[in-house]
Amino acid sequence: MDIRYVKAFIFILITVFGIPGNLYIILKFVLIRLVEKKLLPTNVILWVLALSNLLIVFSRVIPQVLHAIGLENLMDDTCCKIFGYTYRVSRAMSICTTSLLSCHQCILIAPSTKIWIYLRQKVTQNIFVVILSILLLNLVLYRTSFMYANARKNFTSPYTLHLVYCDTDFQTYVSYIANGIVFASRDFLFVALMALASFYIVCVLLKHARKVKGIRSSDKIQTKSIEHKASRAVILLVLCYVVFLGLDNAMWIYTLTLSNVKTDMNDARVVLACAYSALSPIVIIVTNPKLYPQSVFRFWKRIHLPQSSSCSLVYSSNGSKQF
Fold this sequence. Notes:
The protein is mainly alpha-helical. It is about 70% helix and about 5% strand. Strand 2 (about 160-165) and strand 3 (about 165-170) form a beta hairpin.
């Protein structure tokens, strides 16, 4: 079988899962905001994560699909710079918001000491400021994409990454290595934050499970169910990130040792980098009751009723503990 058809099938599969899943999350949270007049901080984070993942699919996977089915020379230098910049910023936002989600949940379920209460209130009240700060930082950090991205050329330097219609030419070995080390280190830092926050969340949930052993059976079953959903949601999201993005960064580090990186290797990295954008919406939808399809009909019935908090991927609406 021609390798091109295999690539086309894989990228089409990512598109089929990535676009509808992320678009559903985005539109559903917009509907919740319009109907309930509010959106929990964690759901704001999830909305940004879904938007980032959707832009990843459009800016990187769609061009891969078009190239895999045989369409050539679709982008000039300007398009390459725009698509490259959009992909890199969106990928960085996906990484940062996943880490922010884990850290935010960690703060919410932490003990009610003065410092944790202070952090809980500040982060919850200023979640838009935090996200905007992260976005501005990534917009500035990835401005180099405009410098290195260009349309495919017949002659390239040894330090060029071939990305279907575009080349990322770092021109010198120093810039090639420096770029790889800086961004790979950034990714591993956020992976470490995610892992630590998720480990703490699981420890707190297990500790809480031991405390509720004396509660009557009906309450215990309900509490256990919520805890299991919470731990599965956090663990699955972090596991997806670590597996796919971790392998992507491992391959990126390996390419730093090569003088000429082949297109097939770059395509494999794109698959790993974008697989999280296609699978994370499934995890989010399954573990967040607000996103269940049948809940849309209940929104309109409750539009004039007092709003009550509900459990989702994050378990508190005002920063207090909720299991």
